[in-house]
Amino acid sequence: MQTSNLTKQYGRHRAVDDVNMHIKKGAIYGFIGRNGAGKTTCLKMISGLSTPSYGEIEMFGYKGKDLQKVRSRVGCLIEAPGLYGNMSAYDNLNIKCKLTGIKKKGYIEELLKTVGLDTVGEKKTKHYSLGMKQRLGIALALVGEPDLLILDEPINGLDPQGIVEVRETIQKLAKERGMTICISSHILEELSKLATDYGIIHNGCLVQELTREELMKKCSERIELTLDNPKQAIPVLDDMGFNSYQVIDKEHIHIFERLGESASLNMELAKAGIPVKGISITSEELENYFLRLTGGDNRA
Ligand code: ATP
C-alpha cells in the first residue's frame, strides 16, 4: 500500500499534507503522531471512509477508480468499535457476517479464538472491559479475511493488561495470517515491541519513515564523535577494526560497538592528526527521539 501526495483539506486547514506513505506486504507499520497530527484523517482516507482532497492511494496494484475493486480486502477499526451493547460478542460478529454474506460454519468461533474472546459466552458487550471491546473491534475488522488491517489507536486508554492482550493479538495475526497491519499511536514506545516499520506524522506531514532496525540504531547506545571532517576519520576507524559505524552528517560519526574503547580511539585520531572536538557515549530513548523529531518536549 502506498500513498502519493495524499492531502486532506478542511476549509483553510490541511489536516493531512502531501503524505507519501509506504507499507510493505506483511509489515506491522507503526503510524506515530501526537494528538491532532492527522493520523485518523489519513487512515480514514486509506480505508475509504473519507475522500482525499488531493493525491492518490495505491493498494494491491490498484489505484484511482479501480480501488473500489479491492476495498473489501481492507479491514479497519477506526475510533471506538461500533458494538451492540445488549448483545454478546458472537451476536455482534454474526450481524457483520450476515451483512458481508459469510455463512461458513465455525467462522465466528474461529474469530473469537483469534482475539482471545472464545470463553466469554453470552456476556453482553456493554459489560466488557475496554481491552475486550477493542479485541472484539479487531475481530469485527477481521470479518472477510482482509489482507490489510488498519487499527487506529487500538491501545489508547487500555490498562497494562489490556495493552498486552491487544499487542499479542496483533502479533498473532501478523505471524499466523501473514496480514499487513497498520496501527496508529501517539506513543512511539508503545509500538516499539510490535512494529516492523514506522511512519512519523507531525502537523499533517509525514516527517520520517524508517524500519525497526533503523530506529533501533538511531536510539541505541553509541559513541558519538564530533569532528571537523568525519571522512578523514574513516581510515583510522577501519584500521582499528571498527565495522559498525555511520557518518551522520558533516560533523558527526556514530559508532555502535566497542563502547569501552573511546579513549584509545581518541588517541589514535590525535596521532593521525585529526582533532576530535567531542567524544561521548550516549543513547537516546525512543520517546525522546520522537519528541525531537516532532519539535517539542511535551506531548500534546
Ligand atoms: P487524535 O489521536 O487526537 O485523533 P489524529 O492524529 O488522529 O489525532 P486527526 O483526528 O486526523 O488527528 O485530526 C487532524 C486535524 O484535523 C486536527 O487538527 C483536527 O482538528 C482536524 N480535523 C479532523 N477532522 C476534521 C473535520 N471533520 N473537520 C475539520 N477539521 C477536522
From TrEMBL:
It comes from the Bacteria. Coiled coil: none annotated. It holds the Pfam family ABC_tran. Residues 1-228 form the ABC transporter domain. The keyword ATP-binding applies. Keywords: ATP-binding, Nucleotide-binding, Plasmid, Transport. One of its GO terms (molecular function) is ATP binding. Belongs to the ABC transporter superfamily. This is Antibiotic transport system ATP-binding protein. It comes from Lachnospira eligens (strain ATCC 27750 / DSM 3376 / VPI C15-48 / C15-B4).
